[in-house]
Amino acid sequence: MNGRQFFEKFGPVIKKISGAVSFLPRRIRLWLFDAFKNKSGKSGILIRYILLRTLAKKTGDNVVVFPGVVFENIENLKIGNNVSIHQYSYIDAEGGIDIGDDVAIAHRCTVLSSNHGYSDDRIPIKYQEMELAKTTLKDNIWIGCGTIILAGVTVGSGCVIGANSTVTKSIDDNSVAVGTPCKVIKRRGVKS
């Protein structure tokens, strides 16, 4: 039974459990989420999903968070349906992150929504205000392992981002993009 089939069968029960868990104080839910961050197997995925539904701004159906994923500012995170976030990824939603439907984020990826300000040369950079910028990953995207997506970027629907890329600018729909900085090398669905 794959994840979609599992969720179709048990989704209503899982949502009821999430509803019950949501009555726990937020700090306890955050503590539990951190405590089960590295739990392997299907039970770990299920526990993280139940807690994620109570902590994120929005969590769709069939969202799989593998062990070792770190979320910061999870309350500003929206995740669609059928999303997988693989091991050791880092997602900081301080400025807001929207992840669409059918998105696969491979292991060791970073998705950011803030940058350090650095314009005032009289103040050390680490003490300057953070600059917040919403990051959007639209539908049907594959983010290759080790990719970094910087704040304020939109990755269009149907995109493939190659492994170890650094996405510094928005990428149009149906693009295949690679490199540091990430550049479009071809379009999906276009015959050469």
UniProtKB/TrEMBL annotation:
<protein>
    <submittedName>
        <fullName>Acetyltransferase (Isoleucine patch superfamily)</fullName>
    </submittedName>
</protein>
<keyword id="KW-0808">Transferase</keyword>
<comment type="similarity">
    <text>Belongs to the transferase hexapeptide repeat family.</text>
</comment>
<dbReference type="InterPro" id="IPR011004">
    <property type="entry name" value="Trimer_LpxA-like_sf"/>
</dbReference>
<dbReference type="GO" id="GO:0008374">
    <property type="term" value="F:O-acyltransferase activity"/>
</dbReference>
<dbReference type="InterPro" id="IPR001451">
    <property type="entry name" value="Hexapep"/>
</dbReference>
<dbReference type="GO" id="GO:0005829">
    <property type="term" value="C:cytosol"/>
</dbReference>
<dbReference type="Pfam" id="PF00132">
    <property type="entry name" value="Hexapep"/>
</dbReference>
<dbReference type="InterPro" id="IPR051159">
    <property type="entry name" value="Hexapeptide_acetyltransf"/>
</dbReference>
